[in-house]
Specification:
Elements (H helix, E strand, L loop, with lengths): L1 H25 L5 E6 L2 H12 L2 E7 L4 E6 L4 H6 L4 E6 L12 E5 L2 H10 L3 E8 L6 E6 L5 E6 L4
Parallel strand pairs: 1-4, 5-8
Antiparallel strand pairs: 2-3, 3-4, 6-7, 7-8
Length: about 160
């Protein structure tokens, strides 16, 4: 239901803004967001290809693999980035049942990203659309492991 989705997006946005404000005063920041994949290394390639991210850390034991990605002009800049990471954690199977977007990206070129998502093996859940009459464009997509993500493009000035 598009109306429920819009309402949830508005509530989530208000909650995120509130939490950011509270976090700033409480000394709390976002460390990262985590998604799962049967093959984390393969899924990391998807996010690197589509969003230009770089691997900044890898934790591997005989029982698990976890790959952290971040943004930067190159690998060193991404490692120096203190922003939240996208963390891909190994799990028994890809994520096909959970439809809630776990990652929300701010983007500057929605149309180019849509092409990159499709070329890298992802798919659109919903074609990009304008949110009300705000000029904000929102796109919903699914990575190759079944994780849902959202993209928000600010209005053109």
């Amino acid at each position: 239901n598009p109306m429920k989705m819009k309402t949830r997006a508005l509530i989530a946005g208000a909650l995120a803004t509130t939490l950011l404000c509270l976090g700033a005063t409480a000394g709390t920041t976002l460390n990262g967001v985590r998604v799962g994949a049967k093959d984390p290394a393969q899924l990391a390639k998807f996010y690197q290809s589509v969003f230009g991210m770089f691997e900044v850390q890898r934790i591997q034991t005989p029982q698990m693999l976890e790959i952290m990605l971040d943004f930067g002009a190159n690998a060193d800049a991404a490692k120096a980035n203190t922003g939240a990471d996208v963390v891909i954690m190994q799990q028994a199977a890809d994520n096909t049942g959970d439809t809630l977007p776990h990652i929300v990206f701010n983007v500057t070129d929605m149309d180019a990203l849509v092409k990159a998502i499709k070329a890298a093996g992802g798919k659109l859940e919903r074609e990009p659309f304008e949110f009300g009459k705000t000029g904000i464009r929102i796109g919903m997509a699914i990575d190759p492991a079944g994780n849902h993500f959202e993209m928000i493009q600010a209005p053109k000035r």
